[in-house]
Amino acid sequence: MTSAVPVAHSTSKFTPVSLAITLFCLLFSGGTYAQISEEIRAVESSIIKIYTTAAAPDYFTPWRLLTPTQSSGSGSVISGNRILTNAHVVANASYVQVQKHNDPNRYTARVVFVSHASDLALVTVDDPAFFADLEALTLGPLPDPQEEVYVFGYPMGGRTMSITKGILSRVEQQIYAHSGDFLLAGQIDAAINPGNSGGPVIVDGKIVGVVMQANSGGRAENLGYFVPPDIINHVLTDAEDGVYDGFPDLGFRTQDLESPAAKEAYGLTPEQSGVLVIKVFEGSPAAGILQENDVVMKIAGFAVAGDSTIAVNDALQTNFKYAIDLQQIGDEIEIEYARNGQVFTENLVASKRQESYGLVKPEAFDEIPEYYVYGGVLFVPLNMNLIMRWGPDWNRTAPVNLLQARDEWASPERSELVVALQVLAADVNLGYHDLRNWVVDTVNGQPVRDFHHFTQMLRDNASPHVVFRNSSGYQVVVDHQEALASEQAILEQYRIPTAWSDGLFDE
Question: Active-site residue 119, yes or no?
Fold first, then answer.
């Protein structure tokens, strides 16, 4: 009781001025809280929970699907009765449902557009009543560094919506976890959990990002990543005609050029900067214009630094690829480059990326795997879907020869590798029953260009025997007529529906 006396005495020191200041601060903070609450309430109704049943193909037995899985994610309503979410939320989906905030009903939905590269997708509900009481959110600009943002979504661990607050801490090119593409991404200091994926990042009631998977390998704590507005706008523009074009590529690869000795060797003055061209792909926009050992100095008006970065504005410095990513297919991109000290300027037309610039194609989604069973040997094209089938630790558990192929460039003469994945034991392949994960280099002495070329060679074969050979010279010999005669029996024995994947031999 006695301790109350000093406290009571201390309150008597308030002056009229200090009391007014205190009341003003209380009123101001209360008004800010009310304003934030009103803003949150306005956004809440536009946040959607997405339920997905997905059945991915099994690349070890490509005529089968893996066990279906159920997952959930988040999305936000935008113009045109569409829901903006992540591509990985609906990847390989066989059934999609959506649910509104504070509504127990689920509505059947369908995917209308997917950009796996940017991990973005658009979903809709055919029942127009679903959108009748929902307000479409609009896109806002990229927040400034250290600006507060709100993240909306439905993370695991509960049924109700979660709203978290964070600070924009960094914006730069990142490798997207879903696709492996190198695109601009934002980072906030708020942990983002499974289920949050696809939810919006909000500032002033507008979408300034879409939450996506982290690519930190579990090492980073209390960090979240989002797709920024420039990438979202690119995808929405791409989606206008309903045909996916993707992000453009000019068809050359570079390395940093920071060494003073290297700059001098390639004809640059100390004041000049750029990046060294190390590869130009045939048939690309850069082919016939750029050459290896050229130095790219400017792209789309942005000066390229020796560390491969450009200054977009005072707050954003990122990889020069960003200047290309902003363009749509068919746009002209001005490029300034130096060759032996002489500077040139050319316009390159932004074109679709080639399916793969390497011998190992990137991971694909929503696709049926290709395969061909010949003489009881299962042949498949090599891609990341197959390599990743060795499990989460695939970079250590997958066969070394398949992993090493990721470092090889594709060419018109050899754009894809063919793998003898396994042997379905039968009389026709006696002596090769232990064959596994074997890359075929030639068929009857003819180099293999790609999987379709390989299968066509087998279909058109007129020789009594087919000789498969790898790059080390090891050979596998199959009697052609016996292979054809035993095909149906092998398929029935191993319960394989057809000897080849749908569409493989369609003209």
Answer: yes
